[in-house]
Amino acid sequence: MSAVPAIRVEGLQKSFGANHVLRGIDFRVDVGEVVCVIGPSGSGKSTLLRCVNRLEEADDGSILIEGEDIRDPDADVDLLRSRIGMVFQSFNLFPHLSVLRNLTIAQRRVRRRGRDGADRVARENLARVGLAEKADAYPAHLSGGQQQRVAIARALSMEPDMMLFDEPTSALDPELVGEVLAVMRDLARDGMTMMIVTHEMGFAREVADRVVFMDGGVVVEEGPPDRVLGDPAHERTRRFLQMVR
Length: 245
Description:
By secondary structure, the protein is of the alpha/beta class. It has helices at residues 45-52, 77-81, 99-109, 115-128, 144-156, 174-189, 201-207, 225-230, 235-244, and strands spanning 7-16, 19-29, 34-38, 60-65, 68-69, 84-87, 162-166, 193-197, 210-215, 218-223. The strands form two sheets. It has a six-stranded mixed beta sheet, with helices on both faces. It has a four-stranded antiparallel beta sheet with strand order 2-1-4-5, with helices on one face. Strand 1 and strand 2 form a beta hairpin. The chain is globular, with a radius of gyration of 18 Å. It starts with 6 loop residues before the first strand and ends with a helix.
């Protein structure tokens, strides 16, 4: 394991007007680690994730990506972001582009890959998520689970060092959740560094190296999934888990 964490957050503060969402968060994800962040709605977990790659601007604190502070005025934010794959609740695919074009457009514009190279990487990642035969399809012709798998393949096509997932199954019908979680399990087995905001407790127990429980803009407790989910130390964690089981 690298001595430098993939993600290290220190003293992170974020408010939206009078709503103090993050209250001095200290948080890390080590290289090759899978960290699942759980907590009630409004606890700040998605805001924390979005601050990591500066989709939201933090008010105070530091966010180090592989040792480099993405909040530093001199930081090359685009370069740092290129190391981070992001998958959202909504799929954010371009509806007017084929699946293959959805996977190649950023490769060609950001990574400056030629058409053949971008197509090869895209097809490899479509196969990785079980959708090799959908390269020429359009998003409207795919199920929600297939669209989310395309979104994961698109992020992987940029060859990131780490992946961030913001409740990637919350917009899916229950019968489609499993196919997305299966892809994420495969990524975990392959050693991908991942920070996952999720409400899927069974998945967190199975895949996470560490579970972080947030509430009220702070980290209440963290540790191995068997302890945090099976024998939590804090009453607030116990009450939350009773509600979601």
